[in-house]
């Protein structure tokens, strides 16, 4: 059997596998482009591989087979690019929609304000807590403590901490997050803090753009990293109080439960869990660093 026939059989087999994946609703993700491959694209890819495989198995000249393969590749690439653009637009819409669903009325610094901003990400944080078997509300309480529930928050001391969970560069990288710049510190890095301030101003506080260049601003990815960090420290120290204390200062304090950080996170955790049960009315607002609101009134009910 010559090489062309072997390649043709391989293409046909690939087309069958893609078809089976589509039939059984397997979600495939392109590792290079990072987009979800839709059912329609799977059908196209299956057809392309099958058709090219038949050409290779037949006696059709190599030139025509190469031409078909090139055309098929260009067409598939176009569909993937279009899918990526659609996904980006959908992600933008989701971020905008969540700020229409969850409304903010309370001042930025108040407990209720922290709750309202954090509640925008309730579904993501719920799923992450359940995935890593964390106590209910602990990620929410941590976000309320660290960033007031603002995913575009920079540490007020301009020390390089950033995002919903105020990760420093080294820890963020350790848990697989992409970090802007070349800082690798786990302590204060004011130069990196200034870089982030300039970047976020340049990007005009656009969440989608910031999440692309630094994943500490990506809500789901940063929540996953924070959950893994807490889970690792819990496994190491055997206590959620100690895990929270270690999250704050690298290793747990001897009296972890009595430290200001742990007490505040626990307080916010309890506040969130209790407040989460109630109905409320908010005023629509998109995220910003100053917590200002507009006058568009809307009701929300949980």
Distance between the termini: 66 Å
CATH class categorisation of the largest domain: Mainly Alpha
Strand order of the largest sheet: 1-2
Quaternary state of this entry equals single chain
Sum up the overall morphology in one term: elongated
Number of structurally distinct domains: 2
Order of helices and strands: HEEHHHHHHHHHHHEE
How many DSSP-defined strands?
A: 4
Mean of residue pLDDT values = 77
What is the element layout, followed by pairings?
Elements: H1 3-23, E1 28-29, E2 36-37, H2 39-57, H3 62-101, H4 111-119, H5 122-131, H6 138-147, H7 169-174, H8 190-202, H9 207-213, H10 219-237, H11 240-249, H12 260-275, E3 280-283, E4 297-300
Antiparallel strand pairs: 1-2, 3-4
Helix pairs in contact: 1-2, 2-3, 4-6, 5-10, 6-12, 10-11
What does this structure look like?
- With 302 residues, the chain is mostly helical.
- It folds into two domains: 3-92; 104-300, Lysozyme (Orthogonal Bundle).
- It is 60% helix and 4% strand.
- It has twelve helices and four strands.
- The protein has helices at 3-23, 39-57, 62-101, 111-119, 122-131, 138-147, 169-174, 190-202, 207-213, 219-237, 240-249, 260-275, and strands at 28-29, 36-37, 280-283, 297-300.
- α4 (111-119) packs across α6 (138-147) and α5 (122-131) runs parallel beside α10.
- The chain is elongated.
- The chain starts with a helix and ends with a strand.
- Mean pLDDT is 77; it is low at 25-38 and 281-302.
